[in-house]
Design goal:
- By secondary structure, the protein is an all-alpha fold.
- Helices cover 68% and strands 1% of the residues.
- It has 15 helices and two strands.
- It has a two-stranded antiparallel sheet with strand order 1-2.
- Helix 1 (3-28) packs across helix 7, helix 2 packs antiparallel against helix 7 and helix 6 runs antiparallel to helix 7 (180-201).
Length: 365
Amino acid sequence: MNIWMVLLAAAMLSTVLCNVLIPMAWKTALVDHPCARKQHAVPVPLVGGLAVYGTMVIMMVALLPLEVDIRLFLVSSSFMVLIGALDDRYDIDPGVRFIAQMLAAAVVVFGADVQIMQLGNLLGAGTIELGPLAMPFTLLAIVAAMNAYNMIDGIDGLLGSLAMVAFAGIAALAFMHDQHLPVIVAAILFGAMIPYQIRNMGFRLRPIRKIFMGDSGSMLVGFVVVWMLVMLTHPERLLESWFAIQPNVEAVRPVAVLWLIAVPLMDMFAIMARRIMKGQSPFRPDREHLHHIFMRAGFTSRQTLGIITGIACFKLALGLTFEWLQVPEPIVLSIFIAIFVLYLVMLKNIWRIVSWVRQQRDIEE
């Protein structure tokens, strides 16, 4: 199967779905209205996630064997997108949304037996088996990823860029380990994101209708990313008939996949920790995310997008290099933790750093 043709077909299908869904969004009031926390001045249709979802479903049904694992994944992702769309339209209570996310994740965890069973040789003393903790750990990992991508979606192009970095990384890891199925799925999702990214960021040569991803899209991205990461690290647990054709399939080391989602993951945990320390709800919206910090330092939204995407690409390159060279897992984990600690230290002194950056760039306070 030609991966480039799959990517192109997904991009074309997603383009068609965007054009179909935009007028429907206006009719159903599925639009994002301006407020104090947001930068746009007019309502914007929230159909990016629905277009990506529709493309994913159609392409997977057309190209993949519809084993029970795939069917349950599509059922679970459909439920996830429905939750997100309802949240976009009616602003669901965070507690209710969290429960709904857990229920949707449970479909693949309990129904399709998609579980993170082991964490690899992280401490150098042998493989860490999760045993009875595998199911709750996987549930929390899925919900954490969904909320990480939801929280990072703060400026035009950022969610799409980070999602495309993750899908590109998944394809690269899968290719390195001769896993064909994740390459196909990653190509579908990457292609589906392209029309959204163009509409979300704007296209100078021809005016086009702007759209947002919405909670349906950010939750879908987080869910799909974790599902595919489990596929990479535990290939023997998914699609037995598919892998019967590939007897020599290799598993990716779990520590390698952390680098694919490092930016949204670190941003989420750091922000939630700061909110809890302030006595606030960890789910309370604010303007202290990584992209807000860069913009307060005087960078434009496009410059901020370029910087954060560059950071994500750099971390992805590190992870791929470590996996290619088979650097010992304790060393890889130590480097990841060291970068996260450095990030936390910088956040603790962030306003001093912001003031210094503004002074260096001759920007008035």
